[in-house]
Amino acid sequence: MISLKKEGLLAEGKAKAVYATTSPEIVWLEHKDEATALNGKRKVRIEDKGHYTNQISGYLFRYLKERGIPSHYVKTVSARASLVKKLTMIPVEVVIRNVTAGHFTTRFAQAPMQPLTPPVQEFYLKADELDDPMINDSQLVALSILTQGQIEAIRQQALRINQLLTDLFADLDIQLLDLKVEFGFTKQNDLVLADELSPDNMRLQDKRNHQSLDKDIFRQKKGDLRLGYAIVLDRLAAKLG
């Protein structure tokens, strides 16, 4: 690919910023050194966090691509930035839960770390002003956000991604408790995986000592988030090269 240059800011969120490039089909996705909780109400700058989330995402997107999962990822271009395809994003977060954790335990009065078989899938509307409410299939269709066929395609793809990542992390002595994924449509209207794949949007537990390796370190004030993220990155690098 011809070298692309970073141009003007297109959009900025809590953890990432999107910039135009010299190609109309490709954007520059930059990971920020900020951690947020409580839907952005708590926000702290953590040096090098963007490096970890970007590098981990690169490893995981490449791993999934090799196994037939299409995504927006093109390549990693710096410590904190990657080139990705420009998409029409679907305003929905898809959560896949392998065990009881987080909000699921309080919502359904369940003890943590209970296996969920099959994995539970939940959809949430991306709307900060509404605190990202849960949304069901019929609501998605009635609000013209997705068709039933698109919902089924997303469900199947999300479960496939979950299984592939569960198997990969198991090889690293890490348990994938749950994860959040997002999707978008290409110019050709193809459904592809988007956003990021990092400990920012999944729960990971070290099987060696049962310690959190994800953003729960920050949410629950358990210590230095970077130490957990570094373990994930180091094990991925050792496994995938």
Automatic annotation (TrEMBL):
State the signal peptide span. none
Keyword Electron transport listed? The answer is no
Task: Write down the top EC class of this protein.
Answer: ligase
**Domain of life, per lineage:** Bacteria
Q: Which reaction does it catalyse?
A: 5-amino-1-(5-phospho-D-ribosyl)imidazole-4-carboxylate + L-aspartate + ATP = (2S)-2-[5-amino-1-(5-phospho-beta-D-ribosyl)imidazole-4-carboxamido]succinate + ADP + phosphate + 2 H(+)
Concerning SUPFAM superfamilies, the annotation shows: SAICAR synthase-like (SSF56104)
Can you say what this protein is called? Phosphoribosylaminoimidazole-succinocarboxamide synthase
